[in-house]
Specification:
Helix content is about 45%, strand content about 15%. It is of the alpha/beta class and about 350 residues long. The protein has 2 domains: about 240 residues, Spore Coat Polysaccharide Biosynthesis Protein SpsA, Chain A, CATH 3.90.550; about 80 residues, no CATH class. Helix 1 links the parallel strand 1 and strand 2. The longest helix has 21 residues. The chain is globular and about 60 Å long. The C terminus is likely disordered.
């Protein structure tokens, strides 16, 4: 039995996704033993020929060719069932991995018995795993992501949702919880569903902030020309809500980021790193227009006020000036500039 099985589901987009992804896996520094399982969902652009050719040059690659597009859940399940491993990694084909990514993810699971699944940070993901990057080309995005990872060495946080662009799962979780729910069809919400099932089974989910994986973002969906993609989203959302008797909420919401920021304050005594991480997450919120002038933003700004105060008690009034220098406008910016009236004397930072 191999230590790790990396399952990569492919569907067209050979030059844009599959080929660069596979090349990054073998380019990245990796010590741990792994098997790469390439599952193709009936591509017609040369992907099937490519993965068969690359498998002939690597002893640790196995190829599965589906005769139709079975969708995300079914395709990954075929890959999971095809091999026995201690850990499984589901990796989207529209990703680029970086040095030691696999060793770190697996080592973390080995050191944290209560964590059932773990994922990295990324430039494109629909929850708190996202980090703000200024760059637009892939090489520079990776450099920014690695700079974040180096600054955040050893840091992680627990979450209620992990993006399945890259997720490591221990075998005992799959044995206990089962595989992905194929009732979600082509895709969407099977990751939300699986995270919910894993948590309900008593496991925790974690994000490692010192592992960065570039994610290009849903290219298979974009290139699949699926009619009614918006309808599919709501159809699967309804399936998820009925199955779990809950109302689905996006992972990209201000309360989630503010809870994460509060965690940074409580768990670290490294003042410069806390400022660095908070500034990045506030930029993410600004990118999604969470500081627009509306009632929700006013409530979030008031909540951020409390976060600033908490931070100032721990690190001193320099936090106001540090965050006040962030280059954006809106309610969060004004809070950063005006917070000093709430702060007592302290370190200037």
């Amino acid at each position: 039995m191999t230590t790790v099985a990396i399952v990569v589901l492919t569907y067209n987009s050979l030059e844009e996704t599959t080929k660069p992804c596979v090349e990054s896996i073998y380019r990245a520094k990796t010590v741990i033993d792994f098997e790469l399982v390439l599952v193709d969902n009936c591509s017609v652009d040369g992907t099937r020929e490519y993965i068969q050719q690359i498998a002939a040059t690597h002893e640790n690659i196995s190829v599965i060719l589906n005769h139709s597009n079975l969708g995300y859940a079914a395709g990954n399940n075929i890959g999971i069932r095809a091999t026995e491993a201690s850990y499984y990694v589901l990796l989207n084909s529209d990703t680029l991995v970086t040095d030691c990514w696999l060793d770190k993810l697996v080592a973390f699971l080995g050191q944290h018995a209560g964590v059932g699944m773990v994922g990295p940070v990324s430039n494109s993901v629909g929850n708190e795993q996202i980090i703000h990057v200024e760059a637009e080309n892939e090489g520079e995005i990776i450099l920014e992501g690695l700079a974040w990872a180096e600054r955040c060495a050893g840091d992680y946080f627990h979450t209620s949702m992990l993006g399945f662009f890259c997720v490591a799962i221990r075998k005992e979780v799959i044995d206990s919880v089962g595989v992905l729910d194929e009732n979600f069809g082509i895709g969407m919400f099977e990751d939300d569903d699986y995270c919910r099932r894993v948590i309900d089974s008593g496991y925790q989910l974690a994000c490692m902030e010192d592992v960065f994986v570039l994610h290009k973002g849903s290219i298979s969906f974009k290139n699949a020309n699926i009619d009614g993609l918006n309808e599919l989203f709501y159809q699967n959302m309804n399936k998820f809500e009925k199955k779990h008797s809950v109302r689905w909420r996006s992972g990209l919401t201000p309360p989630k980021f503010l809870r994460l920021i509060e965690g940074y304050i409580q768990e670290s005594s490294d003042y410069p790193k806390v400022i660095f991480k908070i500034a990045n997450k506030i930029k993410v919120m600004h990118k999604f227009n969470y500081d627009a002038a509306n009632d929700q933003a006013m409530q979030m700004a008031a909540r951020l006020n409390e976060v600033y105060v908490s931070l100032s008690w721990k690190f001193g009034s320099g936090i106001a000036r540090a965050l006040g220098k962030l280059p954006f406008s809106g309610l969060f910016y004004r809070m950063g500039m005006g917070i000093s009236k709430y702060l007592g004397p302290g370190r200037t930072g």
